């Protein structure tokens, strides 16, 4: 049940970036008062859309979210509170200023929480990659698990032939007996 809630919330993140700014407009038509509020609405709706879209993007690009196909509980709490504050703004009642301040603060917290989780997940993934890389490198050099099947030479008494390439210029003679430089 818990995983279902987190997965549903992940899908709601994308929908909320569109639905909640529309809710602000619908709420203004239904509950709004005064003409100056319309100017505030023209400014607020795009900012709300951009903020919610950026937070949703930061959550969805995280490696653990893509692997689990579910948001974290921290995302559910922080971003869910942000969505509740935006819904509260849409009623345009006497507590609209309180919900407005809470929405701004929660948007900042949601953004930095998402950035922090993205960096943490990336660091964990990089650490796991480096541990695997070091393990494979140790196996190839023979310092690893003691498995001799992966080593190129298993016996000490094997004969090894090393062929070195000479890089200096040599002179040669062509069919007429004249010596020519091979570089010409």
UniProtKB/TrEMBL annotation:
The chain crosses the membrane at residues 9-31, 37-59, 71-92, 98-119. Residues 139-184 are annotated as: Disordered. Keywords: Membrane, Transmembrane, Transmembrane helix. Residues 165-184 have a biased composition (Basic and acidic residues). This is Uncharacterized protein. It comes from Agromyces bauzanensis.
């Amino acid at each position: 049940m818990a995983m279902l809630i987190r997965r549903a919330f992940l899908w709601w993140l994308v929908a909320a970036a569109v639905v909640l700014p529309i809710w602000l407009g619908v709420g203004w038509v239904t509950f709004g008062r005064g003409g100056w509020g319309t100017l505030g609405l023209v400014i607020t709706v795009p900012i709300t859309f951009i903020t919610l879209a950026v937070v949703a993007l930061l959550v969805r690009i995280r490696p653990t979210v893509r692997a689990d196909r579910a948001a974290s509980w921290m995302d559910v709490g922080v971003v869910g509170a942000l969505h509740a504050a935006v819904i509260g703004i849409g009623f345009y009642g006497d507590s609209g200023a309180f919900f407005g301040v809470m929405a701004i603060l929660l948007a900042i917290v949601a953004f930095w929480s998402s950035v922090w989780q993205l960096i943490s997940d990336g660091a964990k993934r990089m650490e796991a990659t480096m541990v695997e890389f070091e393990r494979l490198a140790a196996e190839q050099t023979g310092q690893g698990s003691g498995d001799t099947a992966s080593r190129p030479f298993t016996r000490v008494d094997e004969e090894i032939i090393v062929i070195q390439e000479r890089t200096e210029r040599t002179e040669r003679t062509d069919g007429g007996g004249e010596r020519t430089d091979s570089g010409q």
